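Need tokens for this chain, all 154 residues.
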Amino acid sequence: MKTKHRLGWTAIVALIFVAGVILGPTPASSQAKTKQKIVVHLSHYADGSHAAMMAVHFAQYLQEHGADVTLMLDVDGVRLADQRQAQTTGSGMNVQTTSLYDAFVKAGGKVLVCPHCAEVAGITAQNLRPGARLGKNLGELADTVLAADKILDY
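Here are the structure tokens for all 154 residues:
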């Protein structure tokens, strides 16, 4: 005589629970981290070369350490993205800022330039340094700010 094996509801639920524990979601500590979106807003350049240098330096550091960084330039800060700007000043800060800018872009950092401020400064897309681009409109700059996890202002 053959014996039939039947699982009761309790056993089925227990098996589903065990399978869920074994095959379930990966623990949070081993899941891929989502990069923080950081906007570094810079509105100074010729009127604040130290602020420009610090903004780019910090943006570069954050980018190289795993953040998704956008350097957003407006007002006088748009001059940082102008390849026609002089590379030297009496303090040598522009040279250092340019080197940091290049390292930031090389590390994958994005440079977003206010189109209105660029127009006021006489900057066109053809004048931009590598890695920089003119925003489509003010809405794109607003969307970038709204999507940011953190915003640093220089």
